[in-house]
Amino acid sequence: MHRPPVNLSSSSACYRQRGGALAMTLHCVLLACVLGQIVFLASRHRVRWDLTSDGLYSLTDSTRGLIGKLDKQLLIEAYFSPQEKLPVSYRDTRTVLDNFLDELVQLGKGRVVLQRFDPNSDKVITERCQRIGVKPLELRSGTSSSISVDRHWQGLRFVYGGGKQKVLEQLAPQSSFQAEALLTPAIKEVLTTEKHKFGYMEWQATAVGQQQPGGIGWNALRAHPDLLKRFEFQNYKDEDGALLPPDLQTLFLYRPKDLTDRQKYVLDQFVVRGGTLVVFADAAEYAIGPNRAFTKMPLALDAAGSEKKLLDQLLSYGIDWKPKVLADLSPDAYTPKDRFQGAQEYLSLPQNNGFGTMYQVVPYPYFFHAVARDWSTAADKFAENEGKVDDALAAQFRKNFVAGMPSDEFLFKTFKQIGRGPGFYWPTWVGLRQKAGEVLDLPEGITGKVLLWSSPATLAEDPPQSLDPLGQGDMQRRNEQFGKFQQKLAERYKAEPRRQAPLMVDVRGRFSSYFAGGERPKRVSELKEEEAKKAADAKAADQPKEGEKPQDTPKDVVGPEAPKPADAEVAKAPPEADMLKQGDKPGRIVVMGDSDFLRDDFVQGTYVQAGGPMSRFGMMFFTQMLDWLAEDRDLVALQSRMPVDRTLTFVEAAGTPNADPRQAEQALASKTRWVRGLNIVLPAVLLALFGFVVMAIRRAQKRSFLESLN
Amino acid sequence: MRESLVIFRRELKGYFYSPIAYVFGVLMTGVLLFLSVSTSLVQGAQASMQTFFGLLPIVCIVFLPGLTMRLWAEERKMGTLELLMTFPVRISHLVLGKFGASVAFLAFVLLMTLGLPLTLGVYGRIDWSPVLASYAASLMFAGSFVAVGMFWSSMTRDQIVAMLLSLVSLFLLYLLGYPIIIELLTGWMPAWMIDVLNGISPYKYFESIGRGVLDTRDFVYFACFCGFFLYANALVLQSRREKG
What we know:
Shape of chain A: globular
Number of helices of chain A: 19
Order of helices and strands of chain B: HHHHHHHHHHHHEH
Radius of gyration of chain B: 19 Å
Strand content of chain A: 15-25%
Number of strands of chain B: 1
CATH class of the largest domain in chain A: Alpha Beta
Structural class of chain A: alpha+beta
CATH architecture of the largest domain in chain A: 3-Layer(aba) Sandwich
CATH topology of the largest domain in chain A: Rossmann fold
Largest interface: A-B, 63 and 70 residues
Strand order of the largest sheet of chain A: 8-7-9-10-26-25-23
Distance between the termini of chain A: 74 Å
Helix content of chain A: 25-40%
Number of helices of chain B: 13
Shape of chain B: globular
Oligomer: heterodimer
Distance between the termini of chain B: 25 Å
Largest sheet of chain B: none
C-alpha cells in the first residue's frame, strides 16, 4: 500500500500556525479578563469631579447642612430587590440611588447608618414592607415565549433617633439631582421635631359659574400634604374677635375685605406685640367664570359701619396701599416663562391646528411678574420719544428706576435665577409711605423696603368694571375688541408718565398702635354682654318696687322651671389685656399686592383648557415664603438649585410696548439663517482652505526640489 | 517612544498631504453641523451642545471606518507593510504611532466644530466645562473606535472588508449601550452577561463624561478598551512579522 510522503515541514508550519492562533486568542481572552477586572475595580473605587458650573451633579449645601446637624443616628433602611433582576431601564436609577446613599453614609461619618434588605428573599421582610408602607413596583418582563409581571422593590425608610420616621414607598430617580430632591426633604421631615405654627384669616373670592358656595380660598396651598408635614396652619378668624394668642408668631391675612373695627384692632395689637403680619392684598375682585369675562365683583375693604379704615391703619404703620389695579406694558413682564409649553400662565387662546390644541399667548398686561433686571439700565429706552432720547428725562430715569427684584433675601434666590418673580393677576400698588417729593416718610423706629417692583411701563387705575380684552362673540369681533383694548392702553401709555409700581413691601420695627388715644373696639361677646346688661337694667326698671305686690305669678305651677330670657344666656366675656399702645418687641408687616396667585383655581390650573390664567410659580413662592418667614434656611440651597437660564437670544425682545412684532420676526429669521449658515459653511471652508494652502506649499517645495536637481 | 513619534509624524503628515483626509473632514463636520444647528441654534432654545454630541457617535460610526480602513490594509496592498516591518522599530511603536496620528487628525477635525459652542456662547450662557469635557469624551470615544477600526484593518488585505467589519462592530458596540436594546436581550441571556455586554459599550461612558462629570472609571475604561484593541492589533502584526 502506497502511503503518501508526509511533508514534515508544512505540517509543522501548520501546527505552528494553529498554535500561534490559539496562543493569540488565549492572550486576548486573558487580557480582556484582566482589563475587565480593572474596569470593574475602577467602577468600585472611583473619584468624580462635577464640572458643571451650577453643580448639577453634586450634593447641595442643604443636604450637607442637614447631615451635619444630626445629633442622633439616622437609620436608612433600603428595601431593594437585587439590581441585576431589575429591568434594564430601572438599573440606572438603582445606581443613582446607591451612589447617593453611599455619599450620605460618607457624609454622616457614623451618624448615618444604611441597612439593605431584599424583600423578595424573605417573607418576613416582605410583610414588614407592607406594614410600613413600602410598595413594590410591578413591572412586566417578557421573553420570546412568555410574559410575566415581576415585583421589584425600591423603597426607603428613614428613622431618626429611633423615633420619627418617614417612608418613601417607591422611587426611581434618573439623576443625582432628582435623588436629592426626593431624599433631602424626607430627611428634613424626620429631623423636624417641632412644626412652625402659622395663623391665618381668609376671605374667599366669589366663585362664578361653579358649584362652590363657599367661594375660592387658598386651601390647595395651605392644606398641601408636603407643607403640613413641616408647618401647622390654624384659622384665627374668630366671630368674637378675640385677641390672637401671644405664642402665635405669624399671621396670614388672605384677601382681606369687610374688616370690622374689632378685626383691625386684633391685627393692630398683634403687630404691636411683635407678631409678623403677612397680607395678600387685592384692590378688586374680577369674576372669571367659564367665559373669562373678567367682570368686577363688589369688594369693600371695610365692613359697613366701620369707623377705622384699613388703608389708614396700614398707612400709620408706614405702608401705602393704593387700591388701584396695575398693568405692566413691558413685554418682558407679561410674557410667560415658556410661551410654548406654559402659554396658559397668563392669558392665551386655544387653537386647534389638526395636530392638537396650541395656545397662542394674548398680550394682557394686567397679568405680569416683576422682572429681575435693573431698570435704570433701560432709562434711555423709556426716555425715547419718536426715535429721539430726551437726555434730561433719561438722566432722571437712571436716578429713579430700580431693579425689579432688589432684595437679597433668600426668598428671592430661586426667582432671581429664573429671572422673574411669581406671576401676579390684577395686582395692586403696595409701597412705603412717602411725603411730597417721593421722600420716604416711615414712622419713627420703623424700617421698610420694597421687595418687588414692576417695570417703568406700569399704568395704575381705579379698578374698571370690566377688564376683558377679547369680549365675547366670533373671532372677528374678538379681534376688533382686542384692537380697541390695546389702543386704549397705548393711549394711556403715551399720556401717563413712566413709573414703577411697588408690588411687595416689608416693614419692620416697634409699631405704635393705630388705636392709641381712642377706645378699643369691643368684642362681639362684650357688645352682647353690654346689650344684655342694658336690657336687664331696662327690665329691672320695669319691675315693681319694694312693697308693691307682684302681679299674678302662679306659685303652684308644677313642672320644669321656665327658661330664662335669652339675654340672661349671654356668657360673661373673658377679660382682655389692656391695649398696648407701643410695642416693646419689633413686629413685622409684609404686604403683597396680589392674592390671586395663591388662590385655588389659579394654582390648580382650573382654566388651563380655556387658555389660563394658571399660577405656575405660586406654590413655589409660597413654600419658600414659609421657610423665609420661619427663617429656616435648611432647604434653601436645594430649592434654589435651578438650572441657570441659558436661553439663546438672537434678537432681543422689544423692550418697549407698541413695537412692531413683524419686524422683530423678520429680523430673527434673517439672523438665525445667517448664524446657522455660517456655522455649517465656515468650518468646511476653513478646512478646505487649509488643504489648499498645504497643497500649494507642497507643490512649491516639489518645484524647487526639481529646479535644484536641474 | 521616539520611534513612535517618528511614525506619528509620518502618519500625520500623510493625513494632511492627502486630499481624501480633507474630503473626510469636510464631509464629517458638514454633516454633523448641518444636522445639529437646526435644533441647536433656535431662538429660545437652551445654549447646549446636547444635539451635537448626541449625533457625534452615529457620525463617527459612519465616517471613522472610512478613515481607519486604510491604516494597515493599504500598507499590505501596496506592499509597504513588509518594508515597515523591516524598520528597526517595535510593532507596538508602529501601532501607537499610527493610532496617535489618527486621533490627532480627528482632534483637528473636531477643533473645526468649535465655532458652534462659540456661537452659543455669544448668544446665550453656555456652560463651558461640560462642553470641554464632552470634547474630551468625544476624542476618547473616537479613539476607541479608531482602535477597533485599526484592528480590523490589520486583519484583512481588503479595505472594503475592513471598513464593513469596522462598521458592523462599531454599530454593535454602540447599540450595546442603549437600554432598549439591552432590554430586548434580557429574555435571551442571563443577567450577568447583559451587564457585561452593557459594560463593554463605549457609548455609556461617553454619555457619562459628556454630562460634565469626570469619573476615573470612565478614563480607566477608555484606556483599557483602546489598550485591548491596540494590543490585539500588535499581536496580529507580530504574527505576520514572524510568518515573514
